Amino acid sequence: MYLGLGVTPQDVIMSERGGDHRMAMGMLHRQVQVLGLVAGTLLCGVALAAPDYAKVFATDRLHDIHISIPADRYRAMQDDLIEVTSRGGRGFGGPPGFLGGAPRMTSRDPIYVPVTIRDDRKSWAHVGMRFKGNSSLAAFRRSTTRKLPFRLDFDRFEEQFPDIRKQRFHGFRSLTFASNDRDESQLREVLASELLRDRGVAAARAALYRVYVDTGDGEQYWGLYTLVEDPADDAFLDSQFGNHDGNLYKPEGPGANWTQFTPAGFGKKNHKTRGDYSDVQGAVAALNAPRTNVIAWRKSLEARFDVDAFLRWLAVNTLMNNWDAYGRMAHNYYLYADQARGGRLVWIPWDHNEAFSLGGVGEWGRGDADVFHRDAGAQWPLLSVLLQDPDYNTRYRRALRYAMEGLGDPAAFATRATFLHKLIATAVEPTADSPRSGRQPSQLTFESSVDGEFGLVALLRDREADIRAELSGAPKKQPQ
User: Do residue 4 and residue 139 come from a single domain?
Assistant: First the structure.
């Protein structure tokens, strides 16, 4: 059972575990704030269409969604995608990390077109749809696949079609659909989401959807997608924090590694007309301030940035061996100035298709093999500065132990991964039966992707063993 911020019943009973108790009670307090907000709205008699999380993000079944795109609009989407991917975009830096974010392989975001959406209950007209992604879109030019990631914005065209004003999909304004690109298991996004939330990280929910699309020649099955909650939707912020009035940023580019503040590196997802960046500017300055008085330095930083929430994410991300994140790439996270915490910034992770990576194989396949990120260097101060501090290092060690409980325990993870693997078996359309055939799984790689020698279960089990060895001070195991 998940309780909004990923609080589980066992989180609440850890009263004898010191810091773990503080961690659990802090999460429970925030959950009570969220429930209080909802209850207050109902008591005041305000008729709001609450987001139906139980329906949209149920994780014990497969969902179906049907999309109708007029033929001329689909051709426009394809023509636009060719233009977007042919021109490319921003360049990139080099090892040991891309300080400006991932290599930009598209020149801009693709266009939106109006489409019709249908599920098992109702239909929605004039919904904005566009393709999304970076490398997955660039691969479009070298592939015949229809299975591309996309976004749906339910009131995107409300000015053109006033009858859809404030249109919502069971309470949600926008939805993102990940294509599970290069994921033999098709489960990395959803398992990462569940693990993060189970361990108390403010992460987007995810669910598994079969997507059917009619582009003018009859309905076709595009494949199994992962629906991922949009952090820029007020529904997400309200469910996680009990408010949505604070600034929401999606950092990428110069400064997104927190070495300096630049407005271009901290793109706003709301309040875009306000020029106030004082919250994130103050947090970056506090992190990089002199530490001659370390107690004062910690106090100043924690007044602006939820350090414990960041360390909790870092611990789970380290357990998942997710390399496409801060510490290697200056992207794939949001920051929210939570009004319930006095405007302190909270770390919200994003995009987990590279989670549970295989350690020890090449520069870009090895993930964050160093449990304590000793090679982070000055270009990643949220790692190097925080983990050099004795107090924060102790908190991180505690967070690592906490990450390996609950769904982070290998046995619990294996049970969950096996259940989901069986659930989606009939929905996966494998490519030709050979390893690494294209960007979708073959029958062989899908069947072994969870419980095989290099499957998700083995990867998490081995990673947990590495972490426990590091925490105990045992010599580091050398890769074979």
Answer: no
Overall number of domains in the chain: 2
Burial label for 188, CB within 10 Å (0-12, 13-18, 19+), is buried
At 189 the three-state DSSP class reads helix
Q: What CA–CA distances, in Å, run from 363 to 89, 187, 289, 359, 426?
A: 23, 24, 32, 10, 35
288/385 Cα distance (integer angstroms): 8
Full domain range(s) for residue 72? 53-235
Q: Burial, 142: exposed, middle or buried (Cβ in 10 Å; 0-12, 13-18, 19+)? A: exposed
Same domain, 181 and 63: yes
pLDDT (tens digit per residue) in 343-388: 999 999 999 999 998 743 333 344 457 899 998 999 999 999 999 9
Q: Does position 9 have pLDDT exceeding 80, yes or no?
A: no
Residue type, 88: G
Q: What is the dihedral of CA 203, 209, 215, 219, to 10 degrees?
A: -170
- Residue 380 in domain: no
Tell me, yes or no, whether 462 lies in a domain. Answer: no
